[in-house]
C-alpha cells in the first residue's frame, strides 16, 4: 500500500502490543474457570494447509488449548480467496466456540472489490486480536534470467501480455501489491489466483506463472533450495527476518509499501466477555518466547494488542486501500 500512517500501523502495534502482552502474561492465572468453554473451540482458516494464517494459528492453538482447558481445532476452508471460510464464520452462532483467522482481503479489501460479497466483515464479525504480520517477497524462478526487480519490470515492458503472476486469491494483498506495482511502473501481467501461498509458489516452479509477491514463509524455503530468486520485499524498510532482500525502493522503483496481516475474528453476536477472554489468552500466547521464536522461523511477527486496536486498524486499512483499489479498477460483480 502507499506510504501512510495506516501502512505503518502494524509496526506501531508491535510496540504498543508489547505492554499488552507483558501484562497479560503476568496475569495468566487470573481467569477463573466458568461455564465457558466446556467443549472444543473451532478456528476456521479460510485458506489451504501451509498458508500463513494456517501456520500461525496452529502454532498459537497448541498453546492456547491448555490455557482454555479445551481443544482448539483448526479447520481449513479454502476457496474464493478466503471469502468462503470468512463468510461461513460470519453466519455462525456467536456462542464463543467459532472463530476465523483471516487476512487483509476477506476482512477489508474485498468489501470494495466484490459487489456481492455475501457477508459484511465490519458488521457480521467482531475483532478479537491482530495475531501477526509479515512482508511479501517478490520472486521469480532462478532460471528466469531475471536478477532484480528492475529487470522484471523492463522484461514485462518488452514482452507485453506474456507475463502472469500468482496470488493467494482475488483481493488479497499478494494481488493488490502487484496491481499497485503495475500502476506505478506502467506494466501489464495477468493475475491467476490460488487458494494458498504454497500453491501460488508451486505455480511459479511449474512455469504456469512468471512471478509472485507472496508471504516470505512460502518463498524463502524455495530460495534456500535454489529454485527461486527473491527480488524485493514489500515493506518500507528491510525486514530483520530477511535482511539480504532489498525493498522495492532500493530496487530502483517508486516507493511501494504493503504488509500482509492475520486477524482472529468472531461472529458479531459473540459475548463481549468471551471476546475479551480470547483476546487476553491469545495475547499471552503471542508473548511466549518460544512462540515468537517459532513465528520468526516462519518469517512472521507476532502483533497482539487490544480488541479496539484491531478495530481501529481495520478502519484505517479501509480508508487507505479504498482509493488504491478504485485506481486499479478491480471490481467483481
Strand order of the largest sheet: 2-1-3-10-4-11
CATH class of the largest domain: Alpha Beta
**Which residue ranges are poorly predicted, with pLDDT under 50 across at least 5 consecutive positions?**
1-7, 22-33
State Rg.
19 Å
Taking the sheet with the most strands, its summary is: 6 strands, mixed
Q: What is the element string, with H for helices and E for strands?
A: HEHEHEHEEHEHEHEHEEHHEH
In CATH, the homologous superfamily of the largest domain goes by the name Bordetella uptake gene, domain 1
| Overall pLDDT level | 89
CATH topology of the largest domain: D-Maltodextrin-Binding Protein, domain 2
N- to C-terminal distance: 24 Å
Count of strand segments: 11
Descriptive account of the structure:
This protein has 333 residues and is of the alpha/beta class. It folds into 2 domains: 6-134 and 260-328, D-Maltodextrin-Binding Protein, domain 2; 136-233, D-Maltodextrin-Binding Protein, domain 2. It has helices at 9-26, 52-68, 83-90, 104-113, 149-158, 173-185, 197-205, 216-224, 272-286, 289-297, 307-328, and strands spanning 41-45, 72-76, 98-103, 125-134, 136-141, 164-167, 190-193, 211-215, 228-233, 260-267, 301-302. The strands form 2 sheets. The protein has a 6-stranded mixed β-sheet, sandwiched between helices. Strands 7-6-8-5-9 form a 5-stranded mixed β-sheet. Helix 6 links the parallel strand 6 and strand 7. Helix 2 packs across helix 9 and helix 6 crosses helix 11 (307-328). The radius of gyration is 19 Å and the shape is globular. Mean pLDDT is 89; it is low at 1-7 and 22-33.
